[in-house]
Amino acid sequence: MVTETDELAAALNSAASRYPGLTRAQLLTRLALEGQRVAQHAQDDRRRQRLDALRQHSGALTGAYGEHYLERLRQEWPA
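The chain above was modelled as a monomer; its predicted structure follows.
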């Protein structure tokens, strides 16, 4: 059960003008599914942007620490 607040009523009324003939329950379902698609698209875009940034900067520090850096660093650690 969903309580139809003023804000939800306005959203359903707006959806009713785009999808005439649907019941309020059908409109609510359609709005929920549309919202999920939009949210998924936004999440996919953010993921794509992060991956693009990683690819762009991948290898930027290659060679910065020199050969065998980790081995030398670990030799300084107490046993």
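The two ends are 63 Å apart (CA to CA).
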